[in-house]
Design a protein that fits this description.
Low-confidence stretches: none
Shape: globular
Structural class: alpha/beta
Order of helices and strands: EHHHEHEHHEHEHHEHHHEH
Number of strands: 7
Distance between the termini: 19 Å
Number of helices: 13
Largest sheet: 7 strands, parallel
Mean pLDDT: 89
């Protein structure tokens, strides 16, 4: 438990609203139109700037590459793009000194892809991932196409990153507990490296009257008229203390990245909650 880590995904939010601090840690992305007008020099300038930002991000936390590359697809061009993206990220990791099977928990995390091609389609995609890249890859369960049970079918080949909120949506209400036997399968897929997991909660303004002291109840919320699409959205903060209590228990076996909209602010909220739970009464 002493080695447990709580992080956040994708974007830094300054606690003080400091725009310069946010600019220093978030990537730039010029439009194609801008590059077309200003030429290759503008693109090169952005690449250099983003490399400096990447260096600052790594010094601050760690990496979270794009999860939008997919291996399960019926479109050859989509698979080709995904493989290229994965290989490029593998090269970046290699230049940073990361190689082998998820060193220090480093991973290139993606979603599975299209439900229409199923697990067999995912296996076909995995067949084409280079061995060096496969050692850094993790695949995350989603809300509509690949649930946790589907991904565990390929857990002997690739690390599986569980998203607790996605699992709750996909199963229409199951909160995965540390005692669930599937946790051992998740741990085994990381081959001795401490696994990574994701968490978020339904948005505060979608279920404003829900008690923060009890886990969100999917069937009850559905009975009130809430659609899965309404409940999929990520909250701003980790407002539900019952979810936070559950995450504190999961920290015994995995590190957790918070996917709430307020990013590092929400991850700090969860970390403070977990620390307080460990303090003697």
């Amino acid at each position: 438990m002493d080695s447990a880590r709580i992080g956040y995904c994708c974007t830094f939010v300054s606690p003080e609203g400091d725009a310069d601090a946010e600019r220093a840690l978030n990537f730039r992305g010029p439009t194609i139109a801008l590059v077309a007008r200003q030429g290759p020099a503008r693109l090169e300038e952005t690449i250099r700037e983003n490399l400096d930002i990447l260096d600052r991000q790594i010094a601050t936390v760690a990496m979270h590459p794009a999860q939008h590359a997919i291996l399960a697809t019926g479109r050859p061009e989509a698979l080709e793009n995904a493989l290229r993206d994965i290989v490029e990220h593998t090269e970046i990791f290699s230049m940073l000194g990361y190689s082998g099977w998820h060193p220090h928990g480093a991973c290139i995390n993606i979603h599975g892809g299209a439900r229409s091609v199923g697990v067999d389609g995912l296996k076909t995609g995995l067949d084409q991932v280079p061995a060096g890249a496969l050692g850094l890859l993790s695949i995350e369960n989603d809300e509509t196409s690949f649930g946790l049970d589907h991904l565990l079918e390929v857990s002997d080949r690739v690390a599986i990153l569980v998203d607790f909120h996605h699992h709750w949506i996909f199963t229409r209400g199951e909160w995965l507990t540390p005692e669930d036997p599937r946790v051992e399968q998740l741990k085994a897929s990381w081959r001795g490296v401490r696994p990574l997991a994701h968490v978020s909660v339904s948005r505060e303004n979608v279920i404003p009257d829900h008690s923060p002291e009890s886990l969100p109840d999917f069937p009850a919320l559905a009975e009130l008229g809430h659609k899965p699409g309404h409940l999929r959205g990520h909250s701003d903060m980790m407002w539900n203390r019952a979810v936070n209590d559950l995450m504190q228990r999961h920290l015994a076996w995995c590190d957790i990245e918070v996917e709430a909209k307020s990013k590092n602010l929400a991850s700090r909220q969860l970390a403070d909650h977990c620390r307080s739970a460990l303090q003697p009464a």
